[in-house]
Amino acid sequence: MVDADNPNVLMLRHSVKFEHTYLPDAEVTIKRIGAAQGWRVRTTHRCDWITESKLDDFDLVAFATTGELPMSDEQKGALLGFIRGGKAFFGIHNATDTFYEWPEYGRMLGGYFDGHPWNQPLRVNVEDRDHPATRHLGESFAMTEEIYSFRDFDRSKTRVLLSLDNDSVDITRGKRDDHDYALGWCHEYGKGRVIYSGLGHHDHVWHEDWFCQHILGCMQWALRLES
């Protein structure tokens, strides 16, 4: 189970396809957040860190990834076993743009990227205000963001935290018939916890206090440090 006193965090940033410019900023921010909490944080591009023996040293794995990562079936099994066994997984923005050819990854995370209809100023609705990642955000807030549409996403199978305010965009540009554009969610996976935030596309947001608190809250919930 998670080491609540001294959690260890591994952030994997490996881009097989498009590489987001925010990634260096995210590394710096997550390391700074971890240091402030007394956590040990390692960031890496190397997918060979996802093995059963190496994962034994960590409590939370964060993915900021794209494409079909160079991981064997044994590594994939180790990742799922890590989470199912009681550890934590945090998907950051483009983590949903990963492993389309591995369906269990999508089931674990909660959906797959299916285009980004909007990249503009907009409003985000806070659907769940009783969560460490969102309780500081109020009922809604304005930001500029690249909004993902998701396939294989079903809100009945997860706890939705954030969603697009459809009135703040031209909703006819969207792809979903139900117009359900969730932007963050969390759920149990086996004995572990999975959380995803679709925010963070633009570099500058990783240095804004409200967003850093959001990222901290995501990790705290996944690590069972906050309910």
Summarize the model shown.
The chain has 5 helices and 11 strands, in the order E-H-E-H-E-H-E-H-E-E-E-E-E-E-E-H. With 227 residues, the chain is α/β, with parallel strands linked by helices.
Please give a structural write-up.
With 227 residues, the chain is α/β, with parallel strands linked by helices. Helix content is 23%, strand content 26%. The chain is built from 5 helices and 11 strands, in the order βαβαβαβαβββββββα. Strands 2-1-3-4-11-10-9-6-7 form a 9-stranded mixed β-sheet. The chain has a two-stranded antiparallel sheet with strand order 5-8. Strand 3, helix 3 and strand 4 form a beta-alpha-beta unit. The longest helix is centred in the first third of the chain and has 15 residues. It is globular, with a radius of gyration of 16 Å. The two termini are 16 Å apart.
